[in-house]
């Protein structure tokens, strides 16, 4: 009770992979040297490998939103008809970006906690054959919901539109078969499942997307996909790169390759499954019960308790940082992350702390009930009989 270790339990930034942190200390390296070019080329190649795509992969010194902005400004033209799926705050960001660039957006909106259905996308495409692009979040972390991007991708692939997926929290937490599902642009960020600090955005770009970009006429400068592709092929970034973060990413990608991307996804899925079971044992309701994702679990605060109280008590009692709801959900839900450098010991500790906080604030639970549910998931997953 006198020593409190800070623990990040948020869906970004996430806990740092220690060797990646150590690698950042070698960042007194000039970015226009062959030493750095080797690191840069390796990162781009390893990103392609762990993302599982033959498409081009580009990287920017930016948050994930930079890659979202780059997609619109490089591939589209003013007045292009697009479909935007909005199921939370990050879907709303897609809508804001396409409108800022003057695109003609058909915004499909569902209530927070739900997911846009593939049938809705398919209907929108049939109603307007001239659609140039469809935008969605693989994982809507503001609500804890996940979209069926496989079914959506297959629907979009039948048309001339490109499918643009914000997978910033989807990569490493859910299966994403980029090439087979027709995911034309897939966007990721460094501070999520890739276990390093914020500041790097990356994206895969399909031949179909490049072709659309040939007619794009929106203004852009820093975020120039063609320029970045040419520079990347030469082992460099177009502009001064975030050297320390790229060194860190190189180490993190080695780690992901060593355990396998499929196992990184499975780790998040098991943690999410265990958290959902534990929440039920503690009399708590999931906010996105119909379509829960594995990057984060959004839990509705018990009646009479502001979720902000739970967030504050995690920090004051245990030095742990969890996420409140955003926008209209603030005070209504709290969110526990599972992506990246999280393990079951982290989950056991979080659930034990949650039980203490709930009891202290009038929501009576049996100590150990939630932890036991998670322990059971772990025990079954690691049972020799099941191996």
Q: How would you summarize this macromolecular structure in one to three sentences?
A:
It contains 14 helices and 15 strands.
3D architecture notes:
The chain has 387 residues and is α/β, with parallel strands linked by helices. The chain has two domains: 7-13 and 260-386, Alpha-Beta Complex (Aspartate Aminotransferase, domain 1); 18-259, Type I PLP-dependent aspartate aminotransferase-like (Major domain) (Aspartate Aminotransferase, domain 2, 3-Layer(aba) Sandwich), CATH 3.40.640.10. Helices cover 43% and strands 16% of the residues. It is built from 14 helices and 15 strands. The chain has helices at 18-23, 34-51, 64-75, 89-100, 118-127, 149-157, 178-181, 207-213, 225-233, 243-259, 261-281, 307-318, 344-360, 369-381; strands spanning 7-8, 56-61, 81-86, 104-109, 133-137, 139-140, 145-146, 162-166, 185-189, 200-205, 285-286, 296-300, 320-321, 323-324, 333-337. The chain has a seven-stranded mixed sheet with strand order 2-10-9-8-5-3-4, with helices on both faces. Strands 11-12-15-14 form a four-stranded antiparallel sheet, covered by helices on one side. A hairpin with a 4-residue loop joins strand 6 (139-140) and strand 7 (145-146). Helix 5 (118-127) packs parallel to helix 6 and helix 13 packs antiparallel against helix 14. It is globular, with a radius of gyration of 21 Å. The two termini are 39 Å apart. The model has no long low-confidence stretch (mean pLDDT 96).
């Amino acid at each position: 009770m006198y020593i409190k270790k800070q623990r990040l339990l948020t869906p970004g930034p996430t806990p740092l992979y220690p060797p990646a942190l150590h690698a950042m200390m070698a960042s007194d390296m000039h970015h226009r040297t062959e030493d750095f070019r080797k690191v840069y080329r390796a990162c781009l190649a390893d990103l392609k490998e762990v993302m599982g795509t033959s498409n081009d992969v580009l990287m920017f010194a930016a948050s994930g939103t930079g890659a979202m902005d780059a997609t619109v400004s490089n591939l589209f033209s003013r007045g292009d008809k697009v479909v935007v799926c909005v199921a939370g705050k990050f879907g709303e960001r897609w809508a804001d970006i396409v409108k800022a660039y003057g695109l003609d957006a058909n915004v499909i909106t569902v209530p927070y906690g739900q997911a846009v259905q593939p049938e809705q996308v398919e209907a929108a495409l049939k109603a307007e054959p001239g659609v140039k692009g469809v935008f969605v979040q693989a994982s809507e972390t503001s609500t804890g919901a996940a979209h069926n991007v496989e079914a959506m991708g297959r629907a979009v692939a039948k048309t001339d539109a490109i499918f643009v997926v914000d997978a910033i929290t989807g990569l490493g937490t859910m299966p994403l078969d980029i090439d087979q599902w027709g995911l034309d642009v897939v966007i990721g960020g460094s501070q999520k499942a890739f276990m390093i600090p914020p500041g790097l955005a990356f994206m895969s770009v399909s031949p179909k997307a490049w072709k659309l970009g040939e007619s794009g006429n929106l203004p852009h400068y820093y975020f120039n996909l063609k320029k970045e592709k040419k520079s990347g092929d030469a082992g460099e970034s177009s502009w001064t790169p975030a050297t320390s973060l790229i060194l860190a990413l190189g180490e993190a990608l080695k780690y992901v390759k060593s355990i396998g991307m499929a196992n990184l996804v499975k780790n998040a899925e098991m943690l999410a499954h265990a958290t959902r079971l534990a929440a039920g044992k503690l009399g708590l309701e999931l906010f996105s019960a119909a379509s829960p994702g594995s990057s984060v679990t959004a839990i509705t605060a018990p009646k009479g308790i502001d979720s902000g109280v739970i967030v504050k008590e995690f920090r004051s009692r245990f030095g742990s940082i969890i996420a409140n709801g955003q926008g209209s959900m603030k005070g209504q839900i709290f969110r526990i992350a599972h992506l990246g450098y999280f393990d079951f010991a982290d989950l056991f500790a979080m659930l034990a702390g949650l039980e203490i906080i709930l009891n202290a604030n009038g929501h009576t639970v049996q100590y150990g009930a939630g932890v036991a549910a998670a322990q059971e998931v772990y025990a079954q997953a690691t049972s020799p009989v099941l191996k």
